[in-house]
Design brief:
With 64 residues, the chain is mainly β. The chain contains no helices and 3 strands. The chain has a 3-stranded antiparallel β-sheet, with no helix packed on it. A hairpin with a 5-residue loop joins strand 1 and strand 2. The relative contact order is 0.32.
Length: 64
């Protein structure tokens, strides 16, 4: 998984083995790109602090 702060160039990478459940705490104002580099299926769960509002999605595309 790679993440980058909005409007920044420094990319932070996390490689998880998948042998046991893991988590990554994504800092606020960071965008992310999750890529499965393994041979098995990848499962993700996202926890957020508020319900998603489609009228105000606070989601911004940023190339990682």
């Amino acid at each position: 998984m790679k993440s980058v702060a909005l409007e920044q160039t420094r990319v932070i990478s996390f490689e998880l083995e998948g042998k046991e459940p893991s988590f990554v705490d994504m800092p606020i104002w960071y965008t992310h790109n999750i890529t499965n580099i393994g041979n098995e299926e990848l499962y993700t769960i996202f926890l957020i602090n508020e319900h998603f509002d489609a009228k105000d999605p606070d989601t911004y595309f940023e190339k990682v």
